[in-house]
Amino acid sequence: xxxxALSRQIQKFEEEIGQNLFIRDxxxxxxTPAGSKLLPVALKIINEWQQFxxxxxxxxxxxxxxxxxxxSVTASYxxxxxxxxxxxxxxxxxxxxLLTGDPAQAIDKVLNDEADLAxxxxxxxxPNRIVFESISEIPLSVIxxxxxxxxxxxxxxxxxxxxxxxxxxxxxxxxRERANDWFKKMGIKPNIYAQSAGHEAxxxxxxxxxxxxxxxxxxxxNSPAREKVQRLPESQLIQPFQLGVxxxxxxxxxxxxxxxxxxxxxxxxxxx
Length: 272
Fold this sequence. Notes:
By secondary structure, the protein is an alpha/beta fold. Helices cover 43% and strands 25% of the residues.
């Protein structure tokens, strides 16, 4: 605004309130008592106007919509609540469509656009299109039933003839890779009784005495059958895996996914 335009605005305002706000002469401009009283009122109005503009801007930036998230049943209550706690407070209008299933399918669900993000184990080979952020390290254990079983005596032998003992193992995925590595380290040609698409079923079948199982500790600890299984000392030879959140690289440009990804990476920074 030019000086002349500002002067006209002040004169117009003085006419409306019936008071002079400034004393003017050729050398100086001095604020009148009425002008001094008006100053805090004017500053308050300006401050409230700026706050209103900021709130209006924030409302326009509020993220709304739905995120499709895939994870295992166990991860839905072992890791998901903590992961989403801060996110929900920051973005209350974003809804989640939770899809649960075999964790070995997590990355495929993302690649096939059946989910925006997934909680997944880090595989040996991560697809180029996938980005992965670790949130936890997950140990695995070899478990046996606590009660009587057909192979109870075989487990007490020294050395144990593992080929006579039935095994229940993951059907695929990183947990299966860890199981295969353990068999190789132990020199075992496993007698596979059953392969399960879900880790939760492995614990249940072991508890019922069908065989020895290999499963992630987080699944064992959260299983209703956890008191009916025992960890074997050989578990220490199984390498843990990294659990994390993954999505397609291109999805990070999507505002909803980007918002969740920022919370995940910030949480990792706090933990480490």
